[in-house]
User: What shape does this take?
Amino acid sequence: MKLNINTKDVVSGAFLILVALAGLYLNQDHSLGTARRMGPGYMPMMVFWLLAGLGALTVLGGLFSGPDPLEKWTGVDVGSLAAAVAAGVIVWKISPQFSGFFGTTYNAVGIGILAGMVVLSFSAGWRFLGLVCAAVAMFGLMLEKFGFFAALTGTILISVLAEPGHRSRPLGVLGLLVFLLALCWWVFIRELDIRVNLWPQL
Amino acid sequence: MELLLTNLAHGFGVALSLQNLSFALLGALIGTAIGVLPGIGPVATISLLLPITFGLPATTAIIMLAGIFYGAQYGGSTTAILLNLPGEVSSVVTTLEGYKMARNGRAGAALATAALGSFFAGTVATVLVAASGPLLTQVALSFGPADYFSLMLLGLIIACVLAQGSVIKAIGMVVLGVALGLVGTDVQTGQQRFTFGIPELSDGIGFVPIAMGMFGIAEIILNLERPEARSVLKTKVGQLWLTKEEFKRATPSVLRGTVVGSLLGILPGGGASLAAFGSYMMERKISRGRHLFGQGAIEGVAGPEAANNAAAQTSFIPLLTLGIPSNAVMALMVGALIIQGIQPGPRMVEAQPDLFWGLIASMWIGNLMLLVINLPMIGMWVKLLQVPYKFLYPSILVFCCIGVYSLNNNVFDVYMTVLFTVFGYMCNKLKLEPAPLLIGFVLGPMMEEHLRRAMLLSRGDPMVFLQRPISATMLGIASVALLLMLLPNIRKKKDEAMAG
Assistant: This one.
C-alpha cells in the first residue's frame, strides 16, 4: 500500500491516544479490584486501553486513506493560537493578585478564557470561534457580580462583532439588544423565575 | 387488545389535560420553527429547553420535548421543498425531488404530500409504539445485568456502524463518551474519579454543557464560517392539494416509507435521517415513477417524508421499553427523565403509566396539531425564514448562556460549555461525529453498573456474557454488524447511501 496521509484521521487518532494516556496515568490513583469485585479503577482501565487501541487504529488507517488535509492555517493562525493559550493561562494565574473579584469562585478561569479567546479572535481563521466563546465567557464572568442585564449586554455586544453586517449599523444592534433584553427578562425572569441578580451588586 | 384500548383511553385522558395539551402545542410550534430554520437542530433546542422543563411535571416535560423532535421533522421539509435548503439533516433527501417539484409549480402538492405522508406515518408509528411497548417490556423484565450490558454494547456498535464516515472513528467517539461519563463519584465505593478536586465535577460532567456546547454553540460558529446567501422565496406555493394522479402515485410510497421508517427508527443509531435516506434509495429503485426521479417525482417526497416521521416516533420504543437511547435526541430524553427522578427502563410502563400512555397519546395529538400548523399556516413559517441569521445567532447564544447557568445556578457550567464548544468545533474540523459521543456518555455509567453487577453474580467469570442466550445473541449481532462494515464493498454502499 502506498503511503497517502489522511491528516484529519492521523490527528484524530493521536488525540484519542493522548486522552487515553492521560486517563491511564490518572487512573493509577484508583484501585483496580478483581474481575469479580471490580474497583473504581477497573472500568476506566478497560475504557482507556480500548481508546488507545482505537486511536492507534485510526492513525494506522489514516496513513493510507488520504489525502484529507486540515484546512489551511496561516502562520498568523498558528501564532495566535499559541499566544491565546499563553495569554489565557497567564491571566488565569495572575488575575487574583490584581483584584479580589478574580479570587472568588471561577472568575479567574472566566477572565482567563475571555483573554485567550479575545487574543484568538485577532486572526482571521479563528475569529468566529474566538468571538463566540468570548461572548459566552463574558456572560459567566459578569452575571453574578454585575447582574442579568449587564451580562446579557456584554454577551450580545461581543457576539455581534462576529458578523460584519452589524458593524456599520449601530441602530440595528441597539434594536436587537433592547429586544433580546426584554425577551430574556420576560421568558426567564417573569415566566420561569430563575434566581439571579438583575442589577449590579455593589 | 381490550387492555390496549383501556390504556390508550387513559393516555388520551392524560394528554388531553389543558396543561399537557398546551405544552404539546408549544413543543410542536418550537419544533416546526427550528425545523424551518437551518442551523439549529432538535438536539441543540432540546438541550436548551431542558432546564426550563425542571419546573414542569415529568409527563408534561417529556410531551413537550417529544413534540419538538417530531415537529422538527415536519418543519424541516418546508424549507427543503421551497428553498432547496434542508432545515434538518433528515430532510436533505427531500430537497432532491421536492425542490424540483416546487420549480415545476407543484410546491403546494409537495408540501401537502409531505405533511399528509408524515401524518399517516406518524399515526401508524404511534400505534406501533403503543402495541409493542408493553410486549417488549415483558421481554425486557427477564433481562439480567449481563443481558443489559450486551444490549447496550449492541446499541453502541450499531450506532457507530450507521454513523456517517469512518466506523473506527465513530467507535472512538463512543468510547471517549464513555470515558467522559466516568468522571465523578464512583457509585459503589464513593471514590472521586478524574474530578481534579473540583467539587462541581463530583456529580459528573453535566449533560447539558456537553450537548449545548457541541451541538448548539459549535454549530453557530460553523454557520458563521460559511456565510450562505439565503435565497429569497421565488416559487409560489400554489394550491395545497394533490391531483388524483399524484395521490395515486404517492400512496404506495407513503406506505413503503412508513414501514422502512418504523423499522429503521427502532434500530439503535438509526433515527430519522437514516430512515429518509433508506426510503429514498428504495423509491428510486422500485417505485412506479422511478424514471421521473431527478425531474420532481412525488414518490421521492412522499416516501422519505413518511419515513423520517415514522422513525422519529418509533425511536422512542427502545427508550420507553429498555431505557436505551437510540440516538442523540433520545439520549437527551434519558437526561430529562433522570433529572425528573425517573429511571428509564422496562419498569416505566408499570410505574409511570401516565407518562408512558400520555406520551403515546400526545404523539398522535401532536401529529394532528402539526398537520394544522404546517398546511394552513405555511405562510407564517416562510416569513420566519426571512429573519436574517445575524439576528438569530445572538439570540440563540444568550438563550444558551442563561439556560446553562440556570441548570445549577453556577457559572462553572457556563465555562464547561465554552470548553465543549471548542471541543465540538475541533471534532467538526477533524470529521469526528459528536452524536456517538453523546450516546456513549449517557450509556457509559449504566454499562459500568451492569458490568460490575454481572461479574459479581458470575463470580468473576466473563463467560457469563456468552452463556446467557439473550446476551450471546446480542453480542453475536454486534460482531456481525461490525464485521460487515469492515468489508470494503458494503462500506462503499453505506457511504453512497449516506451521501444521498
Observations:
- Chain A has a mean pLDDT of 85.
